[in-house]
């Protein structure tokens, strides 16, 4: 029980730090604040910030994208549905599952990214790393002769769906990001049918 309480407190502190970092980025730009500014804004010590995050980019963007290895293995093996794009969407759901609990945080992140070109570059670099890993998973699943350009196109479509869902979440906070993501996928399927 103590461990669960401790983990919950740790998660709340990390979220508070991320929210403060995002707000500082919206207000001052990514390069306009320091870790000391963040510590003051979040009412913690500088050391506490570094107990949670390696640097400013990690604070603002949160932890890297991670998917349970079992889900990745199932995807590479051709599952769970056997349809490549549907299975990519399911993998995307797994990647965002634990990140979408606070849609206000997602909206704030979107605002910070749009306002600051330096942050946009950091996001792009992070997404490129994730995309490279996913392209490799697609090629493992589909075989080495599966064109890398097609795999990258599928991932760019998926990123476009994320971006559109972010826009929808900002415009309609009455629904969760996941609901908007699913609605975006449904709209795309209808448009392409």
Automatic annotation (TrEMBL):
It comes from the Bacteria. Keywords: DNA-binding. The keyword Metal-binding does not apply. Pfam families: TetR_N (PF00440). GO terms for molecular function: DNA binding. PROSITE patterns: HTH_TETR_1. Residues 23-60 form the HTH tetR-type domain. This is Transcriptional regulator, TetR family. It comes from Nocardioides simplex (Arthrobacter simplex).
């Amino acid at each position: 029980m103590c461990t669960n309480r401790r983990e919950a407190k740790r998660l709340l502190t990390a979220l508070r730090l991320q929210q403060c970092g995002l707000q500082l980025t919206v207000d001052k730009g990514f390069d306009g604040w320091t870790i000391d500014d963040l510590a003051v804004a979040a009412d913690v010590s500088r050391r506490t910030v570094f107990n949670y995050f390696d640097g400013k980019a990690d604070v603002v963007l949160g932890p890297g994208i991670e998917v349970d290895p079992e889900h990745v293995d199932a995807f590479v093996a051709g599952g769970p549905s056997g349809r490549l794009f549907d299975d990519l969407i399911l993998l995307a759901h797994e990647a965002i599952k634990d990140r979408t609990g606070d849609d206000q945080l997602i909206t704030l992140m979107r605002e910070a990214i749009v306002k600051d070109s330096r942050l946009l570059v950091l996001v792009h670099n992070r997404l490129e790393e994730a995309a490279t890993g996913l392209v490799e998973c697609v090629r493992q699943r589909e075989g080495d002769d599966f064109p890398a350009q097609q795999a990258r196109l599928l991932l760019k479509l998926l990123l476009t769906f994320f971006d559109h869902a972010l826009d929808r979440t900002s415009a309609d906070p009455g629904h969760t990001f996941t609901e908007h993501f699913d609605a975006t996928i449904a709209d795309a399927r209808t448009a392409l049918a």
